[in-house]
UniProtKB/TrEMBL annotation:
Chain positions of site Lowers pKa of active site Tyr: 86
Segments forming domain NADP-dependent oxidoreductase: 22-289
This protein's name: NAD(P)-linked oxidoreductase superfamily protein
UniProtKB keywords: Oxidoreductase
Active site feature: 56
GO molecular-function terms, A-Z: 3''-deamino-3''-oxonicotianamine reductase activity
Gene source species: Rhynchospora pubera
Length: 321
């Protein structure tokens, strides 16, 4: 895709258009100079949607990259971009939402977000966060209070839309029962090896957009990446003269979801956008539907081994179903 061609958008229930492919900005450990340079490369090859979060420490380098892109004339202004950020669990408390978005805006050197998400359906004691999350620090989430504060952020013009991430259908049901503004998006792990059919159908019925994270299986080196090691995807890629990454991304696009994909390599950034002018055949789609499913990490993966959940039932903070 050349820089003059635009990435198509999905219309959210908030009325705003969200580019169907965005750049994932997370890399651990974060290296600000490397990040800034990758974000600039992304703008240069045509990305106009960026997925950041206070957790990733990518807001500041992204803010700098945006300023520099304007100076270099790669974009006319920040308004040409769609920027998502997220509220981490240690700020998942009603009175901390407004200060948190203001801090994200300062980091990003912008006056508004396009989308602000609750990062996890979980709240931990305020203060410095640790990873894994200490079990003893998990406290009940005041979903009603936090969502009202999220709605406030939208009503004050600090963000154009609000949403959630890692919410199960059960959690979305609770949220929809109390929301004045329904979530525009639920950002969850999704790729051909974790297809999320139940959640996808539920969100479609309720008018909630899905953003797929880890569309290439994610960055963990702990186990073989299920996407890149899939024989089905490899065969389809070879037959079509595409890469496995492109097959995975094209499949997601055809599911009607938005994708946030991370690469800090200019050639792969470009490759990941070259998915709009071709399609999978019915036979290929059928083969992909038979790929064995590898369930995305449960909340256990995020929690410390020691300690205990004192005031919360694990089923209430589950992030995958
Ligand atoms: P991903 O997009 O699935 O990417 C995984 C790895 O694939 C990257 O490290 C990248 O390495 C490599 N890659 C990218 N394009 C490639 C290609 N064409 N061929 C071969 N390898 C390629 O992983 P992710 O970072 O987990 O997910 C994307 C974004 O989703 C994150 O950055 C973040 O913004 C968001 N996210 C959100 C949550 C949440 O809880 N809401 C959780 C996880 C992620 P190189 O950089 O070396 O290319």
């Amino acid at each position: 895709m050349g820089t003059s061609e635009k990435i198509p958008k999905l219309r959210l229930n908030s009325g705003h258009g969200m580019p169907l492919v965005g750049m994932g900005t997370a890399e651990f450990p974060p290296v600000p100079e490397k990040m800034k340079s990758a974000y600039l490369d992304a703008i240069a090859v045509g990305y106009r949607h960026f997925d950041t979060a206070s957790l990733y420490k990518s807001e500041e380098p992204l803010g700098e990259a945006i300023q520099e892109a304007i100076k270099l004339g790669l974009i006319g202004s920040r308004h040409e971009l769609f920027v998502t950020s997220k509220l981490w669990c240690n700020e998942n408390h009603p009175e901390m939402v407004l200060p948190s978005i203001k801090n994200s805006l300062r980091n990003l050197k912008t006056e508004y977000l396009d989308l602000f998400l609750i990062h996890m359906p979980m709240s931990v004691k305020p203060g410095p966060h640790s990873f894994p999350i200490k079990r003893d620090d998990v406290v009940p989430l005041n979903l009603k209070g936090v969502w009202e504060a999220m709605e406030d952020c939208q009503n004050q013009g600090l963000t154009k839309a609000i949403g959630v991430s890692n919410f199960t259908t059960k959690k979305l049901e609770q949220l929809l029962a109390l929301a004045k503004i329904p979530p525009a998006v639920n950002q969850v792990k999704m790729n051909p090896t974790w297809q999320q059919q139940k959640l996808k159908e539920y969100c479609a019925r309720k008018g909630i957009g899905i953003t797929a994270y880890s569309p290439l299986g994610g960055q963990s080196n702990l186990s073989p990446n299920p996407v890149f090691t899939s024989e089905v995807l490899k065969k389809i890629a070879d037959a079509k003269g595409k890469t496995v990454a492109q097959i995975s991304l094209r499949w997601l696009l055809e599911q009607g979801v938005i994708i946030v994909v991370k690469s800090f390599n200019k050639e792969r950034l470009q490759q990941n956008l070259d998915i709009f002018d071709w399609e999978l055949t019915d036979e290929e789609r059928q083969k992909i539907s038979t790929i064995p499913q590898k369930k995305a990490g449960t909340v256990e993966f995020l929690l410390s081994k020691e300690g205990s959940l004192n005031s919360v039932d694990i089923s209430d903070i589950e992030i995958t179903e």
